[in-house]
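IS3 family transposase, Flavobacterium lipolyticum. Tokens?
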Amino acid sequence: MNELRHKYGLELLLNLADMARSSFYYHQKQSKSPDKYRETKELIKAIYQKHKGRYGYRGITDELQNRGLLINHKTVLRLMNLLGLKSVIRAKKYKSYKGDNGKIAPNQKWATDITKFNVRGNKLYLSPIIDLFNQEIISYEVTERPVFNQVVIMLKKAFRKIPNNTNLILHSDQGWQYQMKHYQDLLEQKKNQTKHVKKRKLSG
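Tokens:
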């Protein structure tokens, strides 16, 4: 990237590389001096991969401290940002339903959405179904591109977990995947099979 800076602006290069400015200068600095956090970053990556990206910086901080490493959560957050690691499960995606907690039982209201995140500079797309009662992950699928088949596989996995005699509602936004006729047909087929599954789309 340093070679291209003479020809193109830094902002353009950072956008194309999907890299934060702080990450760029950090790597520049590290190329000139030893990385005192090298072993810590390896541990963070190991913990992140062990929990399949479900641990955020606070969970990783707790595990590092349990291993005897004295480090605060702000440092862990900064290192995770530099490594491009983010928790793949973000409860805030469904915060508009937070008021329902305590008023519903499990398997009454599920929600689905697609979230993009970076792992070691690679873009991945997570498609989960989450129970709004307790934030349990019912099913999920991770792909390198936002393809429709990702949603189909996730949906079929979730269908196998629908209990009997449950009035279930599945929330989604207006994403193109959820407007596909095949997606609607799958929901309709399952509804006819169980007579207990409903679909509802929310504007988002």
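The longest strand covers residues 122-131.
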